């Protein structure tokens, strides 16, 4: 399979359904060969964005470019993108081979050639020999792979995946997402992947576009988003986080001097300005100590043993904190008074 | 796309030059016009002095030039669109203005020799030219916005809108025009006194023993029938879903009966039972010494016939409603310590309320539109639908009166139709969700259960008796007088002279015509209905609500009104169709279209939309998607639509009776004719033969489609017997 992979660019794209604005002036750019995830809570506009790339929805304003070509007014039929649907959308009355060959045959490719390419596609997803079955005779994971094969045999400029794993059970999900990532990388495809599962997004993506309220909240690598969240929303959405109000008193290069409930801390500044801010405290950035140690005073309201770790909820003066601690011989119990310590270089600051 | 437009325009041009523009005397398939000289084609008609045809030809030419000369696609599309629409407008205008006969509404505006001379109705040439211009316009429209719209979708919408406009709205408007007609002109002021005349709306039957106006009669009958069928239907539905009644399969048969019963057959059977010489009348007359009366030929006769005819429809609607009440709601009520009566009264019944209203309105509309039963039974009680018929075919033909009555009837049915859509559209208590409901419906409390049994079961028995009458009556020499067994009626109707191989029976002609026309109409109905359903379910376009409303509208137009409007509209140029078989096919297609649309919508809604989208993102256009993905998956729905429209075409009588001709007679109007002559035996034998024909068609479908697996199994809570 040859590489004809393309970029995707949105210029001030707006999508409205009557009075409702589904996308507010979206600008984005996806480089060729990258897998980019659109991540966000339901109703944030991520699926709308995907359908705009596919041509299943038309932009109300703005321009869309695929592979450098203006496709704003082209319908889905004429765009060189293909899509893997959440429900797989395999045609139930066609065999697996006919399904995979469908895109080729509607472009009037010779039957033998289409069937051969379909078989190649099936081999690529590890389903060689399944061509004569009906979709209903396959398991969910196999159907999923047929859907992927059907999309990639067309050698699309962009491959779109709409929550492709949501119908699989948890264990299979990890396996299939690794496969999808592998195929995407080996073919060098540009892929746009929609999901609401942040763990899935972090596992497969080159870049993640986090969306909220019909606009982009932050774009970055998984590492960027986790380590340098631009807002409280991102910090909360990507991984678990405790958000604690604080005051930034002084900035000293990359270090900020901040106060949380009177306690003075030196933490990475993360581009913050002086004044009121919020401190992002990941559960593993907090330690639990005996009450006589320095830290935030608190009382344990919930404690759970999870095998590899302990999870606690601690009520403090700055709110209840979620803390992950090591499994100890004598764990803290509900009702214990504790002091919560903050590991300074793991804390992050975002604007209030 | 440029190629497709050019092909259509070329077809238009060729037919303008080579095909006869006007209707030829010899009919569509006769080719003698070719040898008679070429003067009949559009081009030569212009040369022969019919200058008003020129704009149509020029529009086609201009559009071709535009297609070839302009390179910029959007500009090309917009100019072609404008030209084609102008061409269509010219064709329509010249057709309406320059007519040989019929209403000349523009007479006062254009007075010239040409207008007075007139021209015959449009023929093949005009039709194909108009179609070519229509498609050139729709394809261009799809291209004329910034980008590439879907030419297939826009063209389908355009075609359906055009067909509905010509074959639903145009005729109905003709009725309106007729209603405003006075001697030598039109008058607005004349209409209202005529419309509100006491003949129609007189209420004096309430206070004296004079009879009411015919409109009031219809309204009263419709309200009674609506209420009666809803009550009976509900009883049947409750028995079917909420009791452990054993003969449920038999009740199912009830739902098939109305589909295969020509509408007047019930009336006929009632005459055999309760008429002057009816079996039951005579029995009681002998037993009790009552005098045999003609009570059946009046309100009560029609009312009973309509209850028998339309209860199954209410049952069909209400069974869905009753099943739609989620078992978990009833279980919730019971766990909150409500007893079975309270559960029914305060949970189930309120949830069914919109469904009950729907069933009532359906019965109301059906009763107003019913033509067969009042025609057979109604000599003592006049209603609108039959009065319209008599105003047309009676001793004193009075089209203006027919138009007024038709408007009165249309007002009533449309009001009910609007009420149904506006009021019920908003309130939906449907409690079936995507989630699997695993509860059990509460069974009825004993009193309610026996109330249902007492209402419904005698009625079911009565229905059985009525239907067996239809069979027995056909084998009896002369009902009420000579009850000897005979095949005479069947031989008269369906006799075959084996020595000559001729079909000597009197019924064969109309029987074959009926089968032929129904078989042609059925696939067309299914095509139009399913295309409309596809557009409604799967496409978004401007004016979709209005589109849906207008395609559903013909459901609310009673057959009688359609029949009258068709003879008023299509008896004259520009579209002259009366006396042909085409008009029968058209009337079936547009009468039965809503059924196809509903069936299609139901089937299409069950197909996951992402299947279409998958096909489209894989590079298929919407036509390929329909052909390769949607149609194959809709197989059963297509077959159902086919059978249903076939059967409806056979049983239809109200619209047909106006449109049949000596050459193209239909079975139902033939039977009605026999009834009017008092030949009951023959009429009933023919009806029985029709019912068997349709049963055979339905069974054939069942075999083709396989076992239906539509409904979830009917679970009814079993009362624990071991305490």
Report on the structure:
The complex is a heterodimer of chains A (352) and B (723). Chain A is of the alpha+beta class and 352 residues long. Chain A has two domains: 8-227, Rossmann fold; 240-351, Nucleic acid-binding proteins (OB fold (Dihydrolipoamide Acetyltransferase, E2P)). Chain A has helices spanning 46-54, 96-106, 111-124, 140-152, 170-187, 198-204, 222-227, 232-237; strands at 8-17, 20-30, 35-39, 61-66, 69-70, 81-84, 158-162, 190-195, 207-212, 215-220, 242-252, 255-260, 263-268, 275-281, 286-289, 296-305, 310-316, 319-325, 337-342, 348-351. The N and C termini of chain A lie far apart (50 Å). The mean pLDDT of chain A is 89. Chain B is mainly α and 723 residues long. Chain B has three domains: 2-149, no CATH class; 212-462, Orthogonal Bundle (MetI-like fold); 508-668, MetI-like fold. Helix content of chain B is 69%, strand content 2%. In chain B, strands 1-2 form a two-stranded antiparallel ribbon. A two-stranded antiparallel ribbon of chain B has the order 3-4. The longest helix of chain B is centred in the C-terminal third of the chain and has 31 residues, at 508-538. Chain B starts with a helix and ends in an 18-residue tail after the last helix. The interface between A and B is medium-sized, with 30 and 24 residues.
Mean pLDDT of chain A: 89
Q: How many beta-strand segments of chain A?
A: 20
Please indicate the percent range of residues of chain B in DSSP E strands (runs of 2 or more): under 5%
Number of helices of chain A: 8
Helical content of chain A, roughly?
A: 10-25%
Parts with pLDDT < 50 across at least 5 consecutive residues of chain B: 430-437, 707-723
If you average the pLDDT of chain B, what whole number results?
Answer: 80
